[in-house]
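Suppose a colleague, Dr. K., hands you the sequence of a protein chain of 306 amino acids and asks what its three-dimensional shape might be. Before reaching for any lab equipment, you can write down a predicted structure in token form. Begin with the sequence itself:
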Amino acid sequence: MANVFRSNGKLMLTGEYLALRGAKAFAVPLQFGQELEIDAVEHPLVYWRTLFRDKIIFHAIFDTERFDVLETNDTDKAEWIKKVFKAIREQKKNFLLKSGAEATARIDLPMNYGWGSSSSFIANLSQWADVDPFMVNMNVGGGSGYDIACAKANKPILYSNELANPKFDEIDYKPGFERNLWFVFQENKMNTAEAIRKIRSKKVSDADVRRISDISEQWVKSKDLNEIMELMKAHEKIISGIMGVQSVMEKYKDFNGAVKSLGAWGGDFMLAVSEMDGADVISYFTGNQRPTIFNWTEIVKNQSIE
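The predicted structure, expressed as tokens, is then:
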């Protein structure tokens, strides 16, 4: 009988970059993610395939001695999966030593969105192997781990990883203005590893870390849309100063509301908050060549619809 595992995608609303320095981050699990189906086989091989919208987009065969790639249609992706397998075996020495598997991953999140195709993959494999996904993530990618927390969360989370000690609490986040929160794709997928390298080269003060943590805590408590917009502006100002990069707000000065980068600046998604009707928000960003837009109620797991 097959074993099936499921993990969520993610988006970080506050704490980008500084979550790596221990700042608290507000993040949400998504309704989209990926499923992993495992069937055990007796011979020492892993037959892997990944499906997106019922079409095979990746396949590979690995041996289970050293997880060497024997066959694949995407060498870079197969080598990354090999790293995940090896990180798992560092924790669990007998993982796949005497058997193999047929593994089928079914993804329902577009992989160019930055919604967590890698983190949900790591979470699924770690659950299958019964190992700590945060340790696997650290050995493979070295991010803050908030995306791993989102992978299994049922609600939005307040996350921190100070001194390599990940902690998070699920939050019943229902501020009453969910329909005023929009996620807008910037039509550019950012490189997470490069973003991690950038922040590690920057000077970050303890005061900046504390201020971002304060903003995250204020955000989850606020029931005032105007206060959220002010927190967005304050957050953008801090990160802009640290990274030496212009805030996305400067690009949309005429927007009737506030916008904020999510994740690595310059790509992936941004958050747009406005009291305007949804049709007007969509019209504005479509007119600015940003036609891929989702409302909070469409994609966030455990969303409130009132």
